[in-house]
Amino acid sequence: MFDSFARLARKALCTQLAVLAAVTAVVAAGPAQADTYPDKPIRMVVSYPAGGGIDAIARLLAQAMSTELKQSVVVENKGGAAGMIGTESVVRARADGYTVLVAGNPELTVNPVLYRDTRYDVTRDLVPLVLIAESPNIIAAHPSVQGTLKDVVARAKSGSPLSVGAPGTGSTHQLALEILKARTGADLIHVPYKGAGPAVSDALGGQVQMVIAGLPPLLPQIRTGKLRGLAVTQLTRTPLAPEIPTVGEVLGPDGNDVIATTWYGLLAPAGTPVEAIKKLQDAALVVLGKPEIRAKLAEMGTDAVGLAGEGFAARIKKELERNGALVREFGVRVN
What we know:
Blueprint: H1 2-36, E1 42-46, H2 53-69, E2 73-77, H3 84-91, E3 99-104, H4 105-114, H5 122-125, E4 126-141, H6 149-157, E5 162-167, H7 172-184, E6 188-193, H8 196-205, E7 210-214, H9 215-223, E8 228-232, H10 247-251, E9 261-269, H11 274-288, H12 291-299, E10 303-308, H13 309-330
Parallel strand pairs: 1-2, 1-3, 5-6, 5-7
Antiparallel strand pairs: 3-9, 4-7, 4-8, 4-9, 4-10
Helix pairs in contact: 2-11, 4-13
């Protein structure tokens, strides 16, 4: 009887030890996983096709972050639907730290107020990591289109409509164009493209007479005389291209509302582990603090920013409110 009791006692003790070991393993798993992250390649989704300014910026960031994280960061282009296809794919991705998004403010702060059927909520479905860089948009023209922006507007008001290519429907570029049309009465025909690259390419070939896009893809073409820079869509001239006037300078009060910069941010799906968010943010901030990276971004026509976490989230919230007000004022809607 004593032996039977002893066997039962030993069995109970073994069971308790097994449970304790299992609990200890679970508790220890969190820090262990945090210590090993990232232990496989990270997928960086770009919400536009290859060849545009956002693609070049993402590839520069991915390469440099790979060095900091000691793990490959692989760029994957998913363009279409004004950046919404790529953005939604990240929203639906597993929130494990191995999928991140490089997106611009069109799909983050314009589409949600311009499209009624946007299938994601930026403030709920995404975690802002770092605001990477920002640049003004430029209104440029094919060399066959002569004169200043004021001349172009006058021509478009007098029965000679002009086609204007822009990245996406529901972008900051389209919003700026719609405000310009509303303020001046110019007949400017919006021609949407899947990204800045195709829009600039068609402007170079004369398939569209004008183009509005970010500085990175346009500045090299303006510098070589293949396109003419007419105006920047911000209140002050940009030091990256000080020779190009603002819309307000050229058009006066009618141009003061035509303000639309393009910025590029790094985000992750909501629910991404805090440890992964911290490592991704830290790596991106280190990269953006390097003089050689800042210089390369300047060469592309954009300024490094490096605004992280809550600051970036506040910027998104503020722009959503502003753009919503503009859409209501000018009655701009896509669907």
